[in-house]
UniProtKB/TrEMBL annotation:
GO biological process annotation, one example: mitochondrial electron transport, succinate to ubiquinone
Listed name of the protein: Uncharacterized protein
Region (Disordered): 52-91
Organism of this sequence: Chlamydomonas incerta
InterPro entries membership: SDH, SDH_sf
Chaperone among keywords: yes
Length: 91
């Protein structure tokens, strides 16, 4: 990498990881200052190509949608199954 590219990469790495991940994977539109950064654009394009080559379209979230809904273990410690798991039938 050239010195200019290293400086541009430093700006990419200064971003918050959750935001950067969503921008690179197309879950959120990247802000204008990132879209003007050639290193960010090159990485984003590489990630998009990897996703296209490696993951069938039906297994990917739609563009602009979160991949996961987040961590949800609030049910732990309760006397019931996790959300979405049916309760056993009483006998």
């Amino acid at each position: 990498m050239t010195m200019a590219e290293l400086n541009q990469m430093a700006f990419v790495l200064d971003e918050e990881n959750p935001d950067l991940f969503k921008w690179l994977t197309g879950q959120l539109q990247a802000p204008e200052h990132m879209l003007k950064n050639p290193v960010f654009v090159a990485i984003r394009d590489h990630v998009a190509q990897q996703l296209q080559d490696s993951a069938p379209a039906q297994t990917r979230a739609a563009a602009g949608r979160d991949w996961v809904r987040g961590w949800d273990d609030g049910w732990r410690g309760q006397q019931q199954n996790p959300p979405g798991v049916p309760q056993p039938k009483a006998q």
